[in-house]
Amino acid sequence: MKKNYCSSTILGVETSCDDTSIAILSHGKIIRNEVITNNKLHVRYGGIVPEIAARNHASAIIKCFFSVIDGTTTKLSNIDYVAYTYKPGLAGSLHVGKIFSKTLSFLIGKPIIKIDHMLAHAFSFSINKGFGIIKFPFICLNASGGNTMIYLFNSFSEYTILNSTSDDAVGECLDKIGRILNLPYPGGLSIDKIYDERKANLKLINHYSPAFKFSFSGLKTFVFNYVNSLRMKNKKIDSVIIGSSVLRWCIDELIKKIIYYSKIYKVKTIVIGGGVSSCKLLRTKIKEIKCNITLAEKQYCNDNAAMVANLAYLFINNGISV
Questions:
Q1: In whole angstroms, what is the distance from residue 210 CA to residue 249 CA?
Q2: Contact 210, 262 (CB under 8 A)
Q3: pTM across the whole model
């Protein structure tokens, strides 16, 4: 028998880091997803300053909200649930989203749903694609600026974290290396843009055993020391060679671990999410794995409220207590 799914209208709120986002999902589809990016505020510092990020959320979230409401036919009375990211993230940024969401929930008299940011990324591949695309069990790589994790999902509520970073996340590592190479902020995106397979030939540190936890601080330190030694000797710093070699090392490290866990747990479906999942090289290399590969659409890789509303919808329709 075909299951009848709830056709709730859900307003999602995402403020875990520096981007402010609000989305509306209705009948299982995203009808509006607004993201206010704040990269220009952080360029001068070469990275995200938590206090600045939180203050900007406070000034941007109302603007973002009205942009979403005015851009659809949805009325406040049509909203059935308010879902917001409650962890993990920058404390001040998360607080802005929580206060906004709880206030809105109280004013319109509708229930509130707390959403784990990483789980939202994990299921972002299913946005606008319906329940049929979700095939358990599956292994998920969540790779971003703040986290690098591999999950094994047996159901919406039954999952295991198989691996996580012991120090820097892969996105953080790439951003910091991009900064020392004087590439435009954010550094990871700049490295992705200049990647040249033919020049990814710089000898870096050895790869770790696939069974070890993710670790990218050693690579970062090696590159920092290498670049500083070139500067002290007044030698040319080739950002393309260094950046391409670093990106290739990082992607190889991710792929090796994905293959390792897929074989151990005999899982044939692999999905990826998080900001780093928009990387062209990662999206190319992961398709070479002989498994069923499902990728999040690029517009839903970076932090966004669509994935928050989407996960709330999945939870509601599968009886997951939130």
A1: 13
A2: no
A3: 0.95
Between helix 239-264 and helix 217-232 the angle, nearest 10°, is: 170
Report the run of H or E that residue 307 belongs to, with start and end: helix 305-317
Q: What does the DSSP 8-state code read for residue 187?
A: H
Question: CA 8 to CA 322: how far, in whole Å?
Answer: 15
- Kindly write down the DSSP assignment for every residue of 4-38, as one continuous string: -----EEEEEE-SSS-EEEEEEETTEEEEEEEE--
Please tell me the distance from the alpha carbon of residue 177 to that of residue 175, in angstroms, as a whole number: 6
Strands (DSSP E) along 126-209, which ranges?
A: 138-143, 148-153, 159-164
Query: Cα separation of 235 and 84, whole Å?
Result: 50
Distances (CA, A) of 30 to 68, 83, 129: 11, 14, 10
Residue type, position 284, single letter: T
Give the pLDDT of the chain (322 residues) as one tens digit per residue.
345 556 799 999 999 999 999 999 999 999 999 999 988 888 888 889 999 999 999 999 999 999 999 999 999 999 999 999 999 999 999 999 999 999 999 999 999 999 999 999 999 999 999 899 999 999 999 999 999 999 999 999 999 999 999 999 999 999 999 999 999 999 999 999 999 999 999 999 999 999 999 999 999 999 999 999 999 999 999 999 999 999 999 999 999 999 999 999 999 999 999 999 999 999 999 999 999 999 999 999 999 999 999 999 999 999 887 6
**With contact defined as beta carbons under 8 Å apart, do 22 and 13 qualify?**
yes
- Separation between Cα atoms, residue 224 and residue 64, nearest integer Å: 39
CA distance 88 to 222: 29
